[in-house]
Amino acid sequence: LKPHHILFAAVALVAAQVSTAFAAEPVDCNGRKDVLGTSRVLTLDTSRGLFVGSNSYPTKLPLAPKEVVLTFDDGPLGKSTEAIMDALAAECVRATFFVVGQQAAAHPAQLKRILAAGHTVGHHSHTHRYMHQLDYETGRADIRRGWQTVDQILYGHAGEKPVTPFFRFPGFASTKPLSAWLKDLGVGVFGMDATGYDWTPIGSDKILARSLRELEVKQGGILLLHDIHQKTAAMVPPLLRALRERGFTVVHIVPAGDRVAGN
Ligand SMILES: [Zn+2]
To answer: pTM of the prediction?
Structure first.
């Protein structure tokens, strides 16, 4: 065991309810060493439910200090999603996109490119309505329609459970009955640990500064950004450079048994 393996094991023990496995070797980037890259793949077993992210839940992902999981919500969209995927590809970084069903229907080419590039496609409802304002059946139908729309485009079929069982509530507005349903289905629910507040009226420089400040305070974790904003797309290249300079590494989360991500 190398020291960093022991560290990961210790973190995993603290978050004992999160079942994990991880690749010890960095994800290959055609031999390139001058990039941020993706340091490891974290496989998450959601079969008995998973609720992670310190803004919403007591449980965090089993990450070592300075490990970051990049997440982008509310897309796909045309230009901004494309620009973010270009920036990620240039640094061999893999992220998770929590996509909105009606956005996926409007931008299927971008949705397919997210998957083809090896990123994880998680779910974020169909219409992005806040679930605490809806009755249970309406909320459930909206969440299910979101992933069914996405899975139909990506895989040509859609079922009662999403192919990738990762979900984030719009606005983190969860409800107990919907959370219980998702747990029973084996769908993991994600909060966040850090964000750049790119949904507020601030520019790229501030989004970058706030993202880095929160990641420094939390020493890594799940970073939330939105791929529907050009101002966010503009700060992703300097963000990735800054993460590398500051010694952060990127972890790619995939679901256990995922036939798409190749593990
Ligand atoms: Zn959202």
So the answer is: 0.89
Work out the pLDDT band at 31, boundaries 50, 70, 90.
Answer: confident
Contacts of 167 (CB under 8 A, 6+ apart): 98, 122, 123, 124, 143, 147, 182, 187, 188, 189, 190
| Burial annotation 82-102 (CB, 10 A radius, 16+ → b, else e) | bbbbebbeebbbbbbbbbbbb
Partners of 122 in beta bridges: 98
What separation in Å is there between the alpha carbon of 72 and the centre of ligand 1? 9
In angstroms, the CA 49 to CA 57 distance is 13
Mean pLDDT, residues 120-148 taken together: 98
User: How far does the centroid of ligand 1 lie from the alpha carbon of residue 3, in Å?
Assistant: 38
Distance 66 CA to ligand 1 centre (A): 25
Residue (of 70, 122, 82) closest to 233 by Cα position: 82
Q: Are 180 and 142 in contact (CB under 8 A)?
A: no
233 pLDDT exceeds 50? yes
Q: What is the pLDDT of residues 179-220, one digit of tens each?
A: 999 999 999 999 999 999 999 999 999 999 999 999 999 999
Q: How far is the CA of 259 from the centre of ligand 1 (A)?
A: 26
199 C-alpha to center of ligand 1: Å? Answer: 9
Centre of ligand 1 from the C-alpha of residue 74, in Å: 5
How crowded is the C-beta side of 105, counted as CA atoms within 13 Å? 11
CA of 73 to the centre of ligand 1 (A): 5
Report the amino acid identity of residue 232. Answer: T
Query: What's the CA gap between 91 and 241, in Å, rounded?
Result: 9
Q: How far apart are CA 155 and CA 14, in angstroms?
A: 36
Query: In this structure, what token pair is assigned to residue 58?
Result: 């007591």
